[in-house]
C-alpha cells in the first residue's frame, strides 16, 4: 500500500524521517497515527521509530531533549514542534505485568513491531508513503478486527493494560475482537488487578466515550473483566448494565463527568457512597462534585424545581445532556432549560444586598442569624417571592422580623 497524500501533521514531520534516512538509518511513522490515517480518522500524536540509537539521533539533529532516553526516546525539536523519535527495541520479561525488565536497542523494524499490542497498531509508514505491514494489520483494518500481534497470551502477560486497550479500541473503532485474542483477554482478565487504577480509569473512560461504546462495554461484560475493575462494578446487577448498554446504543457521551454520572444514576451506589466510589477510581474533585450535585436530581430524589435547579446552575450543561441520555421526556427537559434560562440570579454573589449592607441597615448583627437570613433572602429571590432589588430585600427582611 502506498500513501500519496499525507495528513498535515505527518507532512510537517516528514523532513525528520528524511534527515534520518539521509544519515544512513531507517525511520518510520508508527502506531495509532498510521492506523487512523488509513481509516481516515483525525490523527493525534505522531510517533517516529528509527534504527538509529539515541546518541545517533542526537548527532543528526541540533535541538533534542532526552525525554525517555533510557527507553530509547529522544525528542527532536523542529520549528518549535517536538517529535519523539524512539529507537527500534526488544523487551525482555515483564514480571510486573506492565514494564519490561530490560530494553534492548536493535536495528530491525521487524523486531520492534512484533512487540506491539495489536496488528492494527503495528503498521509503519515510510517517508515515501510506503506502508510496511508485517502482521497483516491492513487486512484486520478492512475486516474491522482487533487481533493481538503473535501470541495473544504473551502480549497480555507482557502488559495487562492491553486487555483494557482491546476493549477501548472496540468502542473507539467499532471493531470486533478476534476469537483467540478474546479468549486470552478473558483468561487473563484477573491480571488487571496488578495495573494502577489511574491507567485503567483512562482506558475505561475512553471506552465509555467511544462512538461504539455499547460494543466495547458488551465485550467487557462478555469477558467478565468488570469483576477486576475498581469500585465493585463487577457486582452491579446485570439489569443495570443492560440499561446502561441501551442508553449507550442510543446516544454518545461527550464528557468524562457525564459518563460517570450516567453510570452512577443507574447503579446501586448509594448517594452517600458516591464520593468514595469515585475516589476509588482516582477521579478528580471536579468530577466528584459534579456527580454529587447531579445524581440525586437525575435519580428523582430531588424535584426539578427552581430552587433545586438553581443550586446546580453551574452544571446545567451536564444535567441537560444527562437528561437526554437517561431518557427523560421532552417536557421535563424543556422545563429544566426554561428554569435555567429565567433564573433571576445565577449565584449568591449576584444578590443586590450583601451581608455588610445588611449589617449597616441595623436589622441584623453578625453571626449565625445573619447567615441564615441571607440564605432565606437568596431562596426568596430565586423562587420569585421578592425582586432582586436592595430596597425590596430590606423591606422583606423587616417584614420577616
TrEMBL record:
Chain ranges of the CCA-adding enzyme C-terminal domain: 252-397
Superkingdom: Bacteria
Residues binding ATP, per UniProt: 32, 35, 116, 159, 162, 165, 168
The keyword tRNA processing belongs to this UniProt entry's keyword annotation: yes
Cofactor: Mg(2+)
InterPro entries assigned: Bact_CCA-adding_enz_type3_sf (IPR050264), CCA-adding_enz_C (IPR032810), CCA-adding_enz_firmicutes (IPR023068), NT_sf (IPR043519), PolA_pol_head_dom (IPR002646), PolyA_RNA-bd (IPR032828)
Gene Ontology MF annotations: CCA tRNA nucleotidyltransferase activity
EC number of this enzyme: 2.7.7.72
UniProt entry keywords in alphabetical sequence: ATP-binding, Magnesium, Metal-binding, Nucleotide-binding, Nucleotidyltransferase, RNA repair, RNA-binding, Transferase, tRNA processing
EC primary class: transferase
Poly A polymerase head domain residues: 27-147
UniProt: CTP binding residues: 32, 35, 116, 159, 162, 165, 168
Binding site for Mg(2+): 45, 47
Domain called tRNA nucleotidyltransferase/poly(A) polymerase RNA and SrmB- binding: residue spans: 174-230
Catalytic activity: a tRNA with a 3' CCA end + 2 CTP + ATP = a tRNA with a 3' CCACCA end + 3 diphosphate; a tRNA precursor + 2 CTP + ATP = a tRNA with a 3' CCA end + 3 diphosphate
Subunit and interaction comment: Homodimer.
Recorded family membership: Belongs to the tRNA nucleotidyltransferase/poly(A) polymerase family. Bacterial CCA-adding enzyme type 3 subfamily.
Function: Catalyzes the addition and repair of the essential 3'-terminal CCA sequence in tRNAs without using a nucleic acid template. Adds these three nucleotides in the order of C, C, and A to the tRNA nucleotide-73, using CTP and ATP as substrates and producing inorganic pyrophosphate. tRNA 3'-terminal CCA addition is required both for tRNA processing and repair. Also involved in tRNA surveillance by mediating tandem CCA addition to generate a CCACCA at the 3' terminus of unstable tRNAs. While stable tRNAs receive only 3'-terminal CCA, unstable tRNAs are marked with CCACCA and rapidly degraded.
Miscellaneous remark of the record: A single active site specifically recognizes both ATP and CTP and is responsible for their addition.
Full protein name: CCA-adding enzyme
Organism of derivation: Convivina praedatoris
Amino acid at each position: 500500500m502506498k500513501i500519496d497524500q499525507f495528513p498535515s501533521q505527518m507532512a510537517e514531520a516528514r523532513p525528520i524521517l528524511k534527515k534520518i534516512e539521509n544519515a544512513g538509518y531507517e525511520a518510520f511513522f508508527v502506531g495509532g497515527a498510521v492506523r487512523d490515517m488509513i481509516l481516515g480518522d483525525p490523527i493525534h500524536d505522531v510517533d517516529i521509530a528509527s534504527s538509529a540509537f539515541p546518541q545517533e539521533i542526537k548527532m543528526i539533529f541540533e535541538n533534542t531533549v532526552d525525554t525517555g532516553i533510557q527507553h530509547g526516546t529522544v525528542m527532536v525539536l523542529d520549528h518549535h514542534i517536538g517529535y519523539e523519535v524512539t529507537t527500534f527495541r526488544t523487551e525482555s520479561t515483564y514480571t510486573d505485568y506492565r514494564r519490561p525488565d530490560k530494553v534492548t536497542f536493535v536495528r530491525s523494524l521487524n523486531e520492534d513491531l512484533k512487540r506491539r499490542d495489536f496488528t492494527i497498531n503495528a503498521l509503519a509508514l515510510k517517508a515515501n508513503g510506503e506502508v510496511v505491514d508485517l502482521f497483516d494489520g491492513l487486512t484486520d483494518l478492512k475486516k474491522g478486527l482487533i487481533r493481538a500481534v503473535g501470541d495473544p497470551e504473551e502480549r497480555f502477560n507482557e502488559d495487562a493494560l492491553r486487555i483494557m486497550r482491546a476493549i477501548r479500541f472496540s468502542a473507539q473503532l467499532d471493531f470486533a475482537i478476534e476469537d483467540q485474542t478474546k479468549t486470552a483477554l478473558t483468561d487473563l482478565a484477573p491480571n488487571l488487578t496488578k495495573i494502577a487504577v489511574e491507567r485503567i480509569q483512562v482506558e475505561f473512560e475512553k471506552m465509555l466515550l467511544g462512538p461504539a461504546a455499547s460494543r466495547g462495554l458488551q465485550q467487557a461484560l462478555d469477558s467478565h473483566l468488570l469483576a477486576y475493575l475498581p469500585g465493585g462494578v463487577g457486582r452491579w446487577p446485570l439489569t443495570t448494565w443492560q440499561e446502561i448498554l441501551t442508553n449507550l446504543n442510543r446516544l454518545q457521551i461527550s464528557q468524562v463527568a457525564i459518563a460517570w454520572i450516567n453510570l452512577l444514576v443507574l447503579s446501586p451506589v448509594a448517594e452517600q457512597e458516591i464520593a468514595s466510589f469515585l475516589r476509588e477510581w482516582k477521579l478528580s474533585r471536579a468530577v466528584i462534585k459534579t456527580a454529587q450535585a447531579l445524581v440525586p436530581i437525575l435519580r428523582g430524589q430531588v424535584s426539578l424545581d427552581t430552587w433545586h435547579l438553581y443550586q446546580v446552575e453551574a452544571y446545567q450543561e451536564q444535567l441537560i445532556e444527562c437528561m437526554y441520555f437517561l431518557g427523560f421526556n421532552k417536557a421535563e427537559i424543556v422545563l429544566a432549560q426554561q428554569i435555567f434560562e429565567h433564573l433571576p440570579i445565577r449565584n449568591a454573589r449576584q444578590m443586590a444586598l450583601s451581608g455588610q449592607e445588611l449589617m449597616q441597615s441595623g436589622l441584623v448583627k453578625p453571626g449565625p442569624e445573619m447567615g441564615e437570613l441571607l440564605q432565606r433572602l437568596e431562596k426568596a429571590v430565586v423562587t420569585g417571592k421578592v425582586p432582586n432589588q436592595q430596597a425590596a430585600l430590606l423591606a422583606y427582611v423587616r417584614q420577616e422580623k
